[in-house]
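Appendix B, example 12.
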Amino acid sequence: MERSEAEAIYAQGREPVVEVLLVLSARLEAQDAQLASLAEAERVEELEQRLKRDSRNSSLPPNHDPPWLGKRGRSRGTGRKQGGQPGHPGHGRSLFPIERVTEVVEHWPARCTCGHVFGAEEREASGAPARHQVAELPPLAVEISEHRLQRLCCPDCGRTVRAELPPGIPRSCFGPKLEAAIASLTVRNRLSRRQLVELLEELFGCPIAVGTIEAILTRTGETLEPVYDELLEQTRGAGALNIDETGWYLGGEPRTFWGAFGKQTAVLRIAPDRGKQHLHGLIGDGFAGVFGSDRFSAYNSLEPERRQVCWSHLRRDFTYHADLGSGPQEAFGLDGLEVTWNVFHAWKQFQQDGDRAALQQRVEAIKQQLWPLLEWGSTGKRQRHVRVVPEEDERRAQRDDGDLDGAEALAAGERSDDRCRHAKDGKHHVKGLRPQPRGCGPLANPASWIRRHVYLMRPDGAESRRRRRAIRPPRPPGRRSPATVREGCGVT
């Protein structure tokens, strides 16, 4: 309504003005009711979408799945009985080599089935003996060594002089082997403080207090600080890094657990929040490799040309869109699932035949299939950074979700225990003890790795401060089969 029209109505008198106001009031009430119904419909639609979220199409864990969804990963069955099939190679327990055997006991038959009783003079082996080995724990007890610091009286001045501990003898009440075992059982094997107190008392006969365990962990974390810095530099020098973050509680306060994972090393860090400044503080400013991550907003600060979005996360997102069942969005999800299945199938074929030229052709075809889909999907109101990975980056940016999931599982397991709650600086337990080299060989044993560095880095260590790292061969990504995706999108 223009001003001139309003003035004309006002000039007509009281009744016309009242009628216009009543009409406008009724119109406003109708619009308010319409807006309320639209808001309610949007709320219902949002709630329905929440009900459709599960572990297949969102970040929810499997224990949040509804009962009607069923168990994940259940195959339709092959019709065969459970267990080993006829003709398959055996997988029995192999015998230890003879040099590992600490005791050999000879057993001779006492009588034959015909009734003949063998004498001692008849004990001559007529063939190779049957070998039966029994592994048993020796009587477990800690070795207590008492160092007596004797006192002598000086004949010249009459002063009493006490002996000093020689280099290599721990100043604390516990040796490096026991301290390394405590650190490994607490951080690596996720035993709580009280559980560890009971275990040391029952199995090793070594009484210890909860506060002593906390002091050992803090001291061990500080001792491994130089090793952590070295591993951080090695991780930043990798050609490709997979990065992820998850929630963490430290002293009852919410924190963020960041992780950077390379082929040889993995570094974990506790930060106050999920801000991008902590991401760049972890990877450093000089990292020149490829980043592998999910689509969390903090990773948008990375260079798109050197960023690889996790295909497992993309498959989950496409599954969510396909499950909504709302026309174009469902079509977008199904097309994305088809592209995702092609990606995993191309990688699986490369693992079988090793033909990189054929892999390049498949990747190029997938690019041509994916690009129109991304252009269509990026026209919505919620856009994300996306890119198609060049083939030369594909070799360096192979994603293995097992590394990230494993780290987050360890973090989730620790949150359920009572570790990192008694000390304000509990982050040293994770920061200093978690980032060990992901290796095999002599460093595959976490306790031996921690024990060695505890002994070498402590002030009273007798050896030099040299360090060793182990290299773990990379595992191929995509452990889960894309069969469910293939069935969901109708790919044949």
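Residues 381-430, 432-444, 453-492 have pLDDT under 50 and may be disordered. The first helix runs from residue 3 to 11.
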